[in-house]
Amino acid sequence: MRRRDLLAMLAGGAAAAPAKRPPNFLIILADDLGAKELGCYGHPVHQTPHLDRMAAQGVRFETCYATPLCSPSRVELMTGRYAFRTGWYNFIGRVTTRLDRLSADEITFADMLKARGYRTGLAGKWQLGLVSQHPSMIHDSGFDEYFSWAWKEGGLPRDADFDGSPRNRYWHPALIENGKHVPARREDYGPGMLSDWLIRFMRRRREQPFLAYYPMVLTHEPWDPTPDSGGQGGFRPNLEYLDQIVGKLRRALDELGLAENTIVIFTGDNGTGRSGKGTVTELGVRVPLLVAGPGVRTGHVSRELIDFSDVMPTLAELAGAELPKVPIDGRSFAWALQGRAGTPREWIFSYLAYERMLRDRRWLLEGDGRFYDCGESRDGSGYRDVTGSDSPEVAAARRRFERILEKLPAPPPEKT
Questions:
Q1: 266 and 220 share a domain?
Q2: Does residue 317 share a domain with residue 343?
Q3: What is the spatial distance between Cα 269 and Cα 68, in angstroms, rounded to a whole number?
Q4: Rounded Cα gap, residues 210 and 119, in angstroms
Q5: Are 244 and 148 part of one and the same domain?
Q6: Structural domain range at position 304
Q7: Which residues contact 213 (CB under 8 A, 6 or more apart)?
Q8: How does pLDDT run across 122-143, given as a tens digit for each residue?
């Protein structure tokens, strides 16, 4: 079915939705940030008071899986679909299907919410195709407005400080707003400009429900000095500045009178750079997931299993929106946010290229074939490697996982 037909069906379903104004959504996606880095997840040194406060005011999920790299995580998050449906098994243009942009036929959570009457805006890292070559691409994926880091874009001005390298996500940033290059100065800091734009978007759109999607450029390398780090770079200053920006956005919601009707979701796209990222392991895919806002229980730590495919159906339920008429792999966890009875997931799934991993409440299969008995642990501590065990209990768990994976195929081998 063509995209326009699917969108028309969504709009038709939304017309029958309840008349009550649905909540706004602010979705913050950190770049290269595993769960273990935050104070609320037990880090002994990193200072993340704003995120810790958000956890105390909402729900913190112990076990949420992205994928090990940014591109497949972003597609799964926005579509609710695993890679065997979308083709996004890996980083853009790499290995497997070598996709160079997100297909306009994929229905995203922005498309879905637009059909429900939302205004939609994106600020930050897209990295699902070159925006300068496809300036309508983000619009085609359901966003009314965008202000995007330009990644390794061609066709933009060059000077001594702007060479199109990854460094230009931070100082003297390369930015594109709705298809047009936005000039920046050497002293301009990308994360500040992007978060300011998002606040302006929320101010402009506060009279109607909105989706503000903020895929941050922090905390990806290079770990340049931040505006308040006294010239010191490194992961920790970048993480702690990310935390400050989260605080800035939540203060803006208060100041705009929007906090009482805005659900804030914070997560990360994969494990931390140099510490898990790119590996089909729990360290590579376990990311923070914090949710706070109206109707969300406070100070709750959830042991429910969540993966990125679950975000789109959760937004649909919270907004009273219709899911697209395509196969969706996730399921809503709105019940876990609201403290209601629900249907827990029995397992969660992740992947990269030809490797797949699966986890249930007790057992974990990583991409290299290692099999673990996790017991009651959710953070890697105390796991037992039972890869070589001939225990009947282990064998039964392995057979169960094999049956599940039969329905979650890896990509076909590439043609040589």
A1: yes
A2: yes
A3: 8
A4: 5
A5: yes
A6: 3-350
A7: 27, 29, 110, 120, 121, 122, 123, 124, 143
A8: 999 999 998 878 889 999 999 9
